[in-house]
Amino acid sequence: MNLDPDKRTNFLDLLRPPSGYRLAQAVGTTYSMDFVGLTSVLLAFVDAEADNESERLNPVELLRAIIRLQNQVRVFVSRGRITEKDISRHGKLSSLFDRIVHEVTFNEGCFHPKVWVARYEPKATAEAAGLKPVLRIICASRNLTQGSRWEIFAAFEGLENGNKDKNSLAREISEFLGKVKQSAEEGDTVVSTIQAALTRVQIELPRQMSEGCHFNWQWNGASPLWKVFPQRGTQALIVSPFVRANFLSPIVNGYDRLTLVSSQAELDALSEDFYAKLKHKAEIFVVNSAVAEDDSPAMQLHAKLFICETSSDRTVLLGSANASQSAWQSRNCEAVVSYSPGLSIEQFRKSFIFSPKSVPGETENLRGWIERYDRQPVVEDEITLAEKELDRLQKLLIGMEFTASYFPQLQSLRFQCPALGGQPELATLVAQHRLRLCPLSRFERDANLVDASGLISQGTEFNAIRILDLTEFIVLEISHPATDPKQFIVKAKADFLHLRDQRDADILDEYLTPESFRNFLRAILFDGVSQGIVGQNSQSKRNDSDGIGWTLLGEITLEEIIQSCTEDSSRMAEIDHLMRVFAKTKAADSEFVQFQEFWDAFQAAHAETMEHTHG
């Protein structure tokens, strides 16, 4: 565990393929997400990133990541928790995420785990010969959103060598994924493939976990996570941005001493009676937020860490669960890793709370990001109350099923939510607040949102919707006169899933040009657009001996394509997919057709060679 802020591990770097590997499949779970955060993960999976100079996404790298990973990556998010931040940044491209993103919903509680399992296969190169597939597992406190916060995670890596895991970690994670995949589309095999790989992986645990390591999770309404929390001990450490008295009370009663690190507002909200009991046993600290360049809060506390010590042993728990009863008593879906011996409470205090300059009994120098808790009165003004009312309305709305119906002859897209009429409390709240919506593909600014009062009856209709405008994502906005409107995104149950392939091709046709195909090809052949500029005299080179008469695609020569695919034959499947996608777009110009002829001939020759080699 590393608590030095100057040596933090980049979460995205944990997802990048190891040297000599490429991503095969990945599954992620999160409470909340935004599309920029998802894009960053997809770019990491293909080992690409945004343009650092302009801080804008490279459109070719982005589309390459989406097209390549649509059938390989699945992200499960709590329904209604796709946030509005930068939702206009991608435009229609956000519609392409509908195969990747799946919502999970419960009647009560929320889907809150932050778990990633990624499987990487070795490239078909001479250097990677003999390598085994690699699995990486991450259990974290971090959601799939932008922003810089104090987070914590446990990361594991194992080889898929056919041997069963010595500990139960892989089996426990597989069982969790088995429950998660119930929210995937019927026939989807990504999660099942990851589960199968977990039966063949062997994970070597570090020394800090030598006395035991388990992946613990609870589903809404099932066996509680609290059963794995040590009930009594000499001292405990709790780091959590959210705290509740109903969780803290048994710990105050069961432990001799307590160190509590949380946030000012959460601690202030504890009752005076409970705080009087708490302060006699606990040292209480708050993390100070920094300020980002745009004056927004940064480095807020979001980590969830629990260390429980007795006179003879120690247990560390970290992951998604806050210090609340909902997180530990079966209301939410949560996931934490528990292990021993781990990090001691004293080590944590020295590394995160107290400065090395502190002298016990003399001076107390706290780290710059933390201070002792000073209780403040809770003031619930009109804005705070309005925000709570919007939160309540959002929770009710995300429990409703929205449908999306497309009428191609009329070019009309209709959204409906008939169940609203059967919810008196919700119908009253909707009547008291303005509810507006818009297809995500049409959202550029707030003015695109329209009144949603017709959702119950005839529906809310949008016209001039072409196939490329089809999206399952709906932007919802709820308003209260005392505060800013709240926007969030839900997925509708759509009747146009059979049009997805055509929709994707039409979107690409609008965004791309023949030159984009060349850039895609470079990105595949040379592992990134910037690496694809090769060949000194490629414009003058031709391969006329095979009779194809193919003019070269920009700077790429036939020899370079053959060499690249020979070095790594897994690129051929990706180029196949690329050809099928681009064949339906305006990129299919005369050079594309000539390249298709070459590609068919090359594949046939390659297949024949492989047959002779292995025959």
Number of domains: 4
Give me the secondary-structure category: alpha+beta
Q: How many individual helices? A: 17
Please tell me the CATH architecture of the largest domain by its name.
2-Layer Sandwich
Shape descriptor reads: globular
What does the average pLDDT come to? 86
Radius of gyration of CA atoms, rounded to a whole number? 27 Å
- Looking at the structure, the CATH topology of the largest domain is Endonuclease, Chain A
Q: What is the helix fraction of residues, given as a range?
A: 25-40%
Quickly list its features:
Endonuclease, Chain A, seven-stranded mixed β-sheet, single chain, Immunoglobulin-like, 28 strands, 615 residues, alpha+beta
Helices and strands, with pairings:
Blueprint: H1 11-15, E1 21-30, H2 35-45, H3 59-69, E2 73-78, E3 82-83, E4 101-104, E5 115-122, E6 134-140, E7 149-150, E8 153-160, H4 169-180, H5 190-198, E9 201-203, E10 212-218, E11 233-239, H6 245-254, E12 255-262, H7 264-268, H8 272-281, E13 282-287, E14 290-291, E15 297-298, E16 300-301, E17 305-309, E18 314-319, H9 325-328, E19 334-340, H10 345-353, E20 370-372, H11 382-397, E21 403-407, E22 412-416, H12 424-432, E23 435-439, E24 450-451, E25 460-462, E26 473-480, E27 483-491, E28 493-494, H13 500-511, H14 514-525, H15 558-567, H16 571-582, H17 590-614
Parallel strand pairs: 1-2, 2-4, 7-16, 11-12, 12-13, 21-28
Antiparallel strand pairs: 1-5, 3-27, 5-6, 6-8, 8-9, 10-19, 11-17, 13-20, 14-15, 17-18, 18-19, 21-22, 22-25, 23-24, 23-26, 26-27
Helix pairs in contact: 2-3, 4-5, 6-8, 14-16
